[in-house]
């Protein structure tokens, strides 16, 4: 299933972008987001449109806008998900609730929490190619978590370190000022490192009964948008992380033989080759549409012998040449 994001998150970005002087209609057009899908809130759009919006916004206003979006976000603005965080018994419970149920907001990646004796590490990971829009989205997501935790308690919550998988962008000073924490780029992961003791803090609206009640609604919503995943979904997820992996490698990761993998895919009407082709098509479109990388470089990195072979495949996948897609940005 394609990854999606709640339209509430998109509206937050647009609101701050408008305050910064950017044109809402132009941004929506460049990100190919129909304006009517945002009306009323609570809807969902493909996460690729969110990344395209971030690409357009940061191209016009710089990466400093990611910190502004995070700084103006309010936990209570996310409906039951937000209130399940606000009413958690402790800040650690709030962090666990926020990470476990984050797919309600954005199911493009996953949060995990590692508990140590003296520190807690929360990691945000997603599969697929990195682009300027994806990097900006990751900065905003991580910043939301830091500022959200600090906003729900009266006492201080220190942050020992904030890590980002991508290289440091221009305008990073604004993010440092908002997060008030050491930032590490090219860290190989997106993560927040917090002192364990600070997470014993009790949120101002802490209420175990209310937390349990509201969390039930969040889990119901999560079940609706993230039904049980199929074997094809698991293979596609593995390919998203390693698009050049052989069938034998993917089979080993899923705990089956290569023969079983191919048979189970055939039973659903698809094949390993078709899934590899679909993944390459998605990466190709993302790279052409949202980066300035040379077409030849993209072709070689995706395993093509030259740009001409890549262009032929691209037209087969998307009905247009790479240059036509790039010219339409």
UniProtKB/TrEMBL annotation:
InterPro entries registered for this protein in UniProt: AraC-type_N, Homeodomain-like_sf, HTH_AraC, HTH_AraC-typ_CS, Tscrpt_reg_AraC-type_HTH
Gene3D superfamilies documented for this protein: Homeodomain-like (1.10.10.60)
SMART domains registered for this protein in UniProt: HTH_ARAC (SM00342)
An example molecular function term from Gene Ontology annotations: DNA-binding transcription factor activity
Transmembrane segments: none
Any coiled-coil regions, as ranges: none
Alphabetical UniProt keywords: DNA-binding, Transcription, Transcription regulation
CC annotations in GO: cytosol
Classification via Pfam families: Arabinose_bd, HTH_18
Limits of the HTH araC/xylS-type domain: 229-328
Protein name: Transcriptional regulator, AraC family protein
Organism listed in the record: Sandaracinus amylolyticus
């Amino acid at each position: 299933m394609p990854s999606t994001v709640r339209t509430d998150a998109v509206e937050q970005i647009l609101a701050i972008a408008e305050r910064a002087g950017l044109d809402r209609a132009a941004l929506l057009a460049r990100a190919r987001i129909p304006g009517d899908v945002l009306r009323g809130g609570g809807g969902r759009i493909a996460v690729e449109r969110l990344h395209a919006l971030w690409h357009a916004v940061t191209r016009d206003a710089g990466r400093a806008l990611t910190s502004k979006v995070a700084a103006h976000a309010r936990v209570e603005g996310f409906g039951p998900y937000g209130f399940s965080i606000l009413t958690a018994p402790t800040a650690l419970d709030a962090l666990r609730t926020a990470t476990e149920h984050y797919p309600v907001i954005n199911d493009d990646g996953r949060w995990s929490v590692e508990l140590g004796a003296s520190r807690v590490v929360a990691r945000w990971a997603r599969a697929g190619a990195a682009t300027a829009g994806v990097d900006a989205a990751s900065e905003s997501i991580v910043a939301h978590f830091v500022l959200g935790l600090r906003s729900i308690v009266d006492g201080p919550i220190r942050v020992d370190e904030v890590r980002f998988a991508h290289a440091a962008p221009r305008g990073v000073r604004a993010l440092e000022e908002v997060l008030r924490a050491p930032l590490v780029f090219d860290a190989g992961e997106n993560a927040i490192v917090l002192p364990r003791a600070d997470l014993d803090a009790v949120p101002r609206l802490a209420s175990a009964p209310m937390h349990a009640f509201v969390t039930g609604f969040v889990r119901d919503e999560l079940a609706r948008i993230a039904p049980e995943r199929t074997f094809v979904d698991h293979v596609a997820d593995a390919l998203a992380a390693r698009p050049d992996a052989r069938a034998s490698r993917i089979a080993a990761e899923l705990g089956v033989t290569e023969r079983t993998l191919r048979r189970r895919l055939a039973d659903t009407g698809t094949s390993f080759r078709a899934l590899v082709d679909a993944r390459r098509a998605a990466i190709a479109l993302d790279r052409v549409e949202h980066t300035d990388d040379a077409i030849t470089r993209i072709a070689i990195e995706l395993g093509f012998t030259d740009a001409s072979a890549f262009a032929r495949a691209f037209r087969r996948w998307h009905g247009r040449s790479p240059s036509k897609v790039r010219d339409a940005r």
